């Protein structure tokens, strides 16, 4: 489960493919315990020496470290995947249709029946409802059927050696060596390109800290045990602040004269205040008056509208892609019996080139938009809303061609 502050990977649920592999390996690299580590880049063999030295300092058995590192080699397919992730440019409705399709909901219902007892344990112990756990399980690995085909050892070492985020992945390598020493992570383990493992895709550090032996066999094995995976996932969500018995996402309808600048995850307000402004549940649901929520317009004022509660923010600790998390949270409501979302008629998403041009213009105006990657992330959304307000446009954070032309 991707419960960490950077978006790393989306399992190949849309179009699973076998990872490309380099034609030659760094076979049997030396694992002598060197006194210092290479921070990033440089000679891969020297990097492995540094990893071995650090593992020794942390008290890991030399036999386990040698076993883990012998035969390790950088995987160029991992670096390619790390630079990719264009799938997250899709708008919410299109992304949801692709990822949910016609089969995901029936599969979730079948998985819910087959694992009813474990899901009940998760809810009783961690407060995470069955529909949310089924949504995560379904989105991460299609209920365990596709858990990734990248060698976990090589993926983690590749990313720890790479200079983009070594400070994030080097600790994951250390945690993986400890799991290997415990007998819970064979060198042959495969998973996602960013090193996540098992049915709910957790990183080694998370497994060490939050993994649960759900089937009481003395091991935490997220690849083969649904009980371990679901209990561990529930434990992680509780750790990040999941509140039992509270909603995460409720579809709402808005008056035509609504002040769109109030939308966005930055604007939490009491539900009673939203109700006073004319925000109402689309069907039947009574909004919890005691809670606060933000108004989420994933495709602007002409698309679907949701109130996003604190539990939704917990899901953003799992994965920082707003589109991915919104889709997963919405799918959980479908699993729980909600009707399909009211799609509306949102304006088309800008093309990749147009979005990049918009980001450059926003950046030139002094806005922090992050990388010029064509993805409508949180920084770009905030900048769009500020410019919409300045130019007298409806400030719904959804960039249209009118804004691009005015800028």
TrEMBL record:
Organism: Pseudogemmobacter faecipullorum
Residue ranges of every copy of the Peptidoglycan binding-like domain listed in the record: 353-407
Ranges where the Transglycosylase SLT domain occurs: 44-332
PANTHER family found in the cross-reference section: LYTIC MUREIN TRANSGLYCOSYLASE, MEMBRANE-BOUND LYTIC MUREIN TRANSGLYCOSYLASE B
Pfam family, one: SLT_2
Cleaved signal peptide residues: 1-20
Record's protein name: Lytic murein transglycosylase
UniProt keyword list: Signal
Keyword Signal on entry: yes
InterPro entries: Lysozyme-like_dom_sf, MltB-like, MltB_2, Peptidoglycan-bd-like, PGBD-like_sf, PGBDSf, SLT_2
């Amino acid at each position: 489960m991707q419960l960490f502050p950077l978006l790393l990977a989306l399992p190949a649920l849309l179009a699973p493919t076998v990872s490309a592999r380099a034609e030659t390996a760094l076979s049997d690299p030396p694992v002598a315990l060197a006194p210092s580590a290479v921070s990033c880049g440089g000679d891969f063999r020297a990097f492995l020496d540094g990893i071995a030295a650090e593992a020794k300092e942390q008290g890991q058995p030399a036999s386990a470290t040698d076993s883990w590192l012998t035969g390790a080699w950088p995987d160029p397919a991992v670096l390619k995947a790390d630079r990719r992730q264009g799938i997250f440019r899709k708008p919410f409705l299109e992304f949801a249709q692709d990822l949910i399709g016609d089969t995901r909901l029936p599969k979730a219902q079948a998985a819910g029946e087959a694992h009813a007892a474990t899901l009940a344990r998760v809810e009783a112990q961690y407060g995470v409802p069955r529909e949310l756990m089924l949504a995560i399980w379904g989105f991460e690995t299609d209920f365990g059927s596709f858990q990734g085909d990248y060698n976990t050892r090589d993926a983690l070492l590749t990313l720890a050696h790479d200079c983009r985020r070594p400070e994030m992945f080097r600790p994951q390598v250390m945690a993986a060596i400890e799991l290997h020493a415990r007998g819970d992570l064979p060198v042959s383990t495969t998973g996602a390109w960013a090193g996540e493992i098992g049915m709910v895709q957790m990183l080694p550090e998370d497994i060490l800290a939050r993994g649960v032996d759900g089937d009481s066999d003395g091991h935490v094995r997220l690849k083969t045990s649904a009980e371990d995976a679901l209990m561990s996932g529930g434990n992680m969500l509780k750790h990040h602040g999941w509140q039992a018995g509270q909603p995460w996402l409720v579809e709402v309808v808005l008056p035509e004269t609504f002040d769109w600048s109030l939308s966005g995850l930055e604007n939490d307000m009491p539900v009673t205040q939203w109700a006073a402004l004319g925000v109402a549940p689309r069907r039947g649901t009574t909004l919890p008056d005691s809670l606060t929520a933000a108004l989420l317009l994933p495709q602007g004022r002409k698309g679907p509208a949701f109130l996003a509660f604190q539990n939704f923010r917990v899901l953003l600790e799992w994965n920082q892609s707003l589109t991915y998390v919104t889709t997963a949270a919405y799918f959980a409501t479908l699993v729980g019996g909600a009707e399909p979302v009211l799609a509306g008629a949102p304006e088309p998403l800008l093309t990749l080139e147009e979005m990049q041009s918009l980001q450059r213009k926003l950046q030139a105006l002094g806005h922090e938009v992050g990388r010029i990657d064509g993805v409508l992330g949180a920084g770009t959304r905030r900048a769009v809303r500020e410019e919409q307000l300045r130019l007298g446009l409806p400030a719904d954070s959804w960039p249209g061609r009118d804004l691009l032309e005015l800028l």
